[in-house]
Design brief:
Blueprint lengths: L9 H15 L6 H6 L1 H18 L7 H45 L4 H19 L2 H17 L8
């Protein structure tokens, strides 16, 4: 985590950097070093976190990391498929609605399937509004913090 991040306080950041250095051997840059060479600092953070992910792969030992990682993956993949799934679902709902409309004109009654199409349409609208980049970003941040908070756990060895 960068020194210019507003996501945590400087004391926590310093503790996390110190612990990450102990665990991985990767030097975590000071604020001055980061300001002087931001790209090199980013590479150090990236390398340290990559090694931390490797060290925290055990679902039994780090269940919060595993569950927030799954949650993030679900959110990311849902967002990625939104652009295919929604138009396809809307097209199918539209075709079914047109067919039901023809049946309603002939029968003069609203069928259960017509109510189903209405419910699905409302759910699709909710899906459209709910699944967005902010939703994915929040899941990513929950995972990142769960991962970084493992640095506050006592050493095993």
């Amino acid at each position: 985590m960068s020194h210019d991040s507003k996501k945590t306080n400087p004391h926590t950041l310093q503790r996390w950097h110190r612990r990450l250095e102990e665990l991985t051997g990767v030097h975590m840059p000071t604020a001055a070093e980061e300001a002087a060479a931001p790209h090199a600092a980013y590479q150090a953070y990236e390398d340290g976190v990559r090694l931390l992910r490797t060290l925290t792969r055990s679902e039994e030992k780090y269940p919060l990391v595993a569950s927030t990682n799954r949650d993030f993956g679900f959110c990311r993949n849902t967002w990625a498929m939104k652009w295919i799934g929604l138009p396809t679902s809307l097209a199918v709902a539209g075709v079914v609605a047109l067919r039901l409309h023809g049946e309603m004109i002939a029968d003069g009654a609203v069928s259960e399937a017509a109510v189903g199409v209405l419910v699905v349409s409302v759910l699709l609208a909710a899906f459209w509004a709910w699944v967005n980049t902010k939703w994915v970003q929040q899941a990513a941040e929950r995972y990142a913090f769960a991962l970084l908070e493992t640095l506050d756990l006592p050493a095993d060895d």
